[in-house]
Amino acid sequence: MNKDQVKGATKDAVGVVQEAAGKLVGNKEQQVKGLVKQVKGEAQKAYGDAKEALKDATPRRR
């Protein structure tokens, strides 16, 4: 697991909490900010997944 995967998953989780908190208090702005964080987190995690897949597919030289 690389840093982009970890940071992306963390942003996604924080976004879920922020969206839920916004719903709870009726704050649409916080809901939207939470959704945006989720999208950014998912994108960063996907980037990390791609980096990891590329690293695994690249033959290592000795």
Please specify the SSE layout and strand pairing.
Blueprint: H1 3-25, H2 28-57
Helix pairs in contact: 1-2
Describe this structure in words.
The chain has 62 residues and is mainly alpha-helical. The protein has one domain (3-57). Helices cover 85% and strands 0% of the residues. The protein has 2 helices and no strands. The protein has helices at residues 3-25, 28-57. The model has no long low-confidence stretch (mean pLDDT 96).
What number of domains? 1
- The tally of helices reads 2
Q: List how many beta strands DSSP finds.
A: 0
Largest sheet entry:
none
Mean pLDDT value = 96
Shape: rod-shaped
**Helix proportion range:** over 70%
Beta-strand fraction estimate:
under 5%
Poorly predicted runs are: none
Query: In angstroms, what is the radius of gyration?
Result: 16 Å
- Helix- and strand-based class? mainly alpha
Termini distance? 23 Å
User: What string, H for helix and E for strand, traces the elements in order?
Assistant: HH
Features:
mainly alpha, 62 residues
Short description:
Helix content is 85%, strand content 0%.
